[in-house]
Specification:
heterodimer; A: about 500 residues; mainly beta; Ubiquitin-like (UB roll); Porin; 3 domains; 16-stranded antiparallel beta barrel; three-stranded mixed sheet; elongated; B: about 200 residues; alpha+beta; six-stranded antiparallel sheet; three-stranded antiparallel sheet; 6 helices; about 25% helix; globular
Chain lengths: ~500, ~200
């Protein structure tokens, strides 16, 4: 059987080129200043009009290379004027000049000979593309198709929009010898629009805090959320436990998202909070455990504006005066606006504003009755090497709310330099906080990731009817992408003890 | 190609069914070089073909190795990198072999481009005794873009890195093919060649 198959092979087309093909012409390029010997010229001419013979061509190419002082000679075979003809091009590569530099590859895409007629973007995120990148894409029109240039632009778009993938489709253009390029931007999640659940931070007074939530795709536009936390940064208590959830990023339409989040935590309390509770007459009690279930529906009203509505069903196991379980069930609503744009000087602007209301009452079978309002606004302006970031928070709480709903300032993000347990160990039902940060790039990249930062924070947390004590803090540090390292100083008379913080959000 | 075989088999007076080859790798000797084709192997399919039809070029890394026993260490090996692209207007394939001397060909069908790539992978067999049995192994992988910087070097491609690549299993999801066939003997291949030309 092998004998027959070997026999079969001999008659098979040689090297993938039809063995019946005749060599129409052999041309030599890259050797204008060289004179081939008569022998080689004769050898070349003998092959023209003959059946295609790879071995003979290899011998000829080797002979030319040797005669020209050890140059490499590459072969290219293309179709001839007739179906049974081929043209051969022998290209002499200059000695010492590498055809490709380190990491570069010459254009090997046959479509490089066609002209780009149009570049078209599709996908919901295309409007967020900066003017600079749009202009770079349009520069490809009228030029020869260049896969490498396109790959580089795709890489920059992915980084700019923080999307997972871009699908490229190149098709014939309307005009002959032209091609159209379509880039489909994946409608992956806009990470900045998502509630950022994950972080790892260290605060010199509050220790390590970590909340890590994994988002696992289980089906198109559907993911499973699994997380673990030991967080003493966000709230008055340190909560430790597990989170699990389900999110559908497309319910009937791209504009609707649905999320279910279940959390179970065990709580630990700071001594300052416990001492403050003992002396408080009508303060809310501490709880040992907290379980919550939060279904949320988010509607994209217009691209930068989203509306969310849902419920927060919480069960807390209080300890004093007797151990009992209390429910804090609230209706939750929010409005969020997030817009990015670029000005004529190529400065990037990022504007964000949000409002959230949580209302718990007997209607929801809640033991706590309260209404919590929080307004947040953020603005960032970034040039090539510098950026300024401003963040403002305002909150108002009325009624009887559990401790986790009370406001606090003095952690890794608010009133940096202060310890929240020094500011107000029981938190407050009013809050105002503003942070102003200046960043200056220290790496030489086109899109810097490392910068020195300097900031000024001012804030206050108080209870209704009390006088607000405004506090200030200044500090500086380093920021590398999402990672930060800072030293902050509380502005006060007397002893000034700096607070070191570091961490990352992702 | 199948029609051509049919004609040739008819010419030799052999029924078509009798030469239906079950073997996957078919070696041939040309002077001091051994080449192998794999008529049943089609790698311009699936995701690589989808990328080609979308105008992108796709690189394939190939290794042909020769060993004296099945599964044993190779005594000869040859690695090559090929880049294939699909002409959107001509609707034909082009292929290039990147090692020196560079070779490229255009206006081929998918099958012809596949054959061209495989037959441009050669093994020297001068040191092999004519009656010594040997096994051939062909490994082919569509290149993972993450491997590209490691493979490209000066000049052209880094053969050391290509060999290193094949010493590792292919990444999950990376299209790859492995064919192993034998035993063959040079004496049989040379005898078959002389009979065919005689």
């Amino acid at each position: 059987m092998k004998y027959f198959c070997a026999l079969l092979l001999i008659a098979a087309p040689a090297l993938g080129v039809d063995a019946d093909a005749t060599i129409q012409s052999i041309s030599l390029t890259g050797a204008q200043n060289y004179q081939l010997s008569q022998g080689l010229v004769a050898q070349l001419q003998r092959l023209i009009g003959q059946k295609f013979n790879q071995q003979a061509l290899d011998d000829l190419a080797r002979g030319i290379g040797n005669e020209l002082g050890g140059h490499s000679v590459s072969q290219k075979v293309t179709s001839g004027d007739q179906p049974d003809q081929v043209r051969v091009v022998l290209e002499v590569l200059p000695q010492g000049e590498a055809r490709q530099g380190s990491g570069e590859e010459p254009e090997l895409n046959v479509n490089a000979r066609y002209t780009v007629e149009d570049v078209h973007l599709t996908g919901p995120d295309q409007r967020k593309l900066t003017k600079e990148l749009k202009q770079e894409l349009q520069k490809l029109v009228g030029e020869k198709f260049n896969q490498e240039a396109l790959d580089e632009l795709k890489r920059r778009i992915k980084k700019e929009l923080r999307i997972g993938s871009i699908t490229q489709k190149v098709t014939r253009g309307e005009k002959p010898e032209h091609v159209k390029v379509e880039l489909e931007l994946s409608s992956g999640q806009d990470r900045e629009a998502e509630i950022n659940l994950s972080k790892v931070v260290y605060h010199a007074k509050q220790g390590w805090s970590a909340t890590v939530v994994g988002d696992f795709n289980i089906a198109p536009q559907t993911s499973l959320l699994l997380g673990i936390a030991s967080n003493g940064d966000d709230l008055l208590e340190r909560y430790a436990g597990l989170m699990a959830g389900f999110e559908s990023k497309r319910v009937v339409t791209d504009r609707l998202r649905l999320r279910f989040l279940f959390q179970t935590f065990h709580e630990q309390w700071n001594r300052a909070t416990l001492a403050a509770l003992e002396s408080a007459n009508d303060g809310p009690g501490i709880y040992r455990t907290r379980k919550s279930f939060e279904p949320t529906l988010t509607v994209s009203l217009a691209r930068p504006l989203t509306l969310s509505a849902g419920t927060s069903l919480q069960l807390v196991q209080t300890q004093f005066p007797t151990a009992r379980t209390e429910a804090a069930n609230a209706a939750v609503g929010g409005l969020r606006y997030h817009q990015r744009f670029e000005d004529s000087q190529n400065n990037k602007h990022d504007l964000e504003a949000s409002y959230e209301v949580r209302a718990a009452g007997r209607t929801f079978d809640s033991d706590f009755v309260y209404t919590r309002h929080q307004f947040h606004a953020g603005y960032k302006i970034a040039g090539p090497r510098q950026a300024v970031v401003s963040s403002f928070t305002l909150g108002r709480l009325s009624g009887r709310a559990p401790l986790y709903e009370r406001y606090s300032v003095g952690n890794s993000t608010t009133l940096r330099g202060w310890n929240k347990f020094d500011v107000s160990p029981l938190g407050g039902d009013r809050v105002v906080n503003h942070s102003l940060e200046y960043r200056h790039a220290i790496d030489g990249r086109e899109e810097p990731v490392a910068s020195l930062i300097a900031f000024y924070d001012v804030g206050a947390v108080w209870n209704h009817g009390e006088r607000a004590v405004v506090r200030h803090a200044v500090g500086g540090g380093v920021r590398i992408d999402m990672f930060f390292l800072t030293l902050a100083f509380p502005v006060r008379s007397g002893r000034m003890e700096p607070i070191f913080m570091m961490g990352t959000t992702f | 190609m199948i029609a051509r075989r049919w004609f040739l088999m008819a010419g030799f007076g052999l029924p078509w069914q009798e030469v239906e080859c079950a073997e996957s790798l078919l070696p041939r000797v040309e002077g001091d070089l051994l080449r192998a084709s794999a008529p049943q192997l089609h790698f311009l399919t699936g995701k690589p073909l989808e990328r080609l039809h979308n105008g992108a070029s796709v690189a394939f890394n190939a290794q042909l190795s020769l060993s004296l026993e099945r599964g044993s260490a190779a005594i000869e090996r040859s690695v090559e990198r090929f880049v294939v692209s699909y002409d959107l207007w001509e609707e034909k394939f082009s292929a290039s072999r990147l090692s020196q001397p560079r070779r490229s060909v255009s206006h081929l069908s998918a099958a012809a481009a596949e054959t061209w790539c495989l037959l441009n992978l050669t093994l020297p067999v001068t040191a092999l005794a004519p009656d010594k049995a040997f096994w051939l192994r062909l490994e082919l992988r569509a290149e993972d873009p993450r491997e590209r910087p490691a493979v490209l070097g000066e000049p052209g491609i880094s053969l050391t890195r290509l060999i290193e690549l094949f010493s590792r299993p292919s990444r999950g999801g990376q299209p790859s093919w492995v064919l192993e066939e034998g035993p063959f003997r040079l004496a049989d291949l040379n005898r078959a060649k002389r009979s065919g030309s005689g």
